[in-house]
Write a structure and sequence with these properties.
The protein is mainly alpha-helical and 107 residues long. It is built from four helices and no strands.
């Protein structure tokens, strides 16, 4: 009985040593460099698209809203969505203009 306990303890110690010596592999360490560069390019493209959307939103804000309103104040996005929807009806702003203006006002 004593030898079985010692054998079990030895196996358990060996298993613990093996798992402690082999750290878990990171998901990014197995990725190939092409995939990493694709992810970087995708992030840059998304950033560029966000900048273009913001610039377009600012342009449409100046064309539609600035004749009555000063520079935009910072409101929470949910409140800003309500305000822009309300003004869309009052100022007859198109849906596309509303989306660009909302993106500009919430960024």
């Amino acid at each position: 009985m004593k030898s079985k306990i010692m054998l079990f303890t030895g196996i358990l110690a060996l298993a613990a040593a093996v798992f402690a010596a082999d750290p878990p592999k990171n998901a990014n360490s197995n990725a190939d460099p092409a995939a990493a560069s694709t992810n970087t390019a995708s992030a840059e493209r998304n950033s560029e698209e966000a900048d273009n959307t913001r610039a377009e939103g600012e342009k449409r804000f100046r064309a539609n809203c600035s004749r009555c309103h000063a520079a935009p104040h910072k409101f929470p996005p949910r409140m800003m969505a309500t305000i822009v929807r309300h003004m869309r009806v009052r100022a007859t702003i198109t849906d596309a203009d509303m989306r660009y203006i909302l993106a500009y006002m919430t960024q």
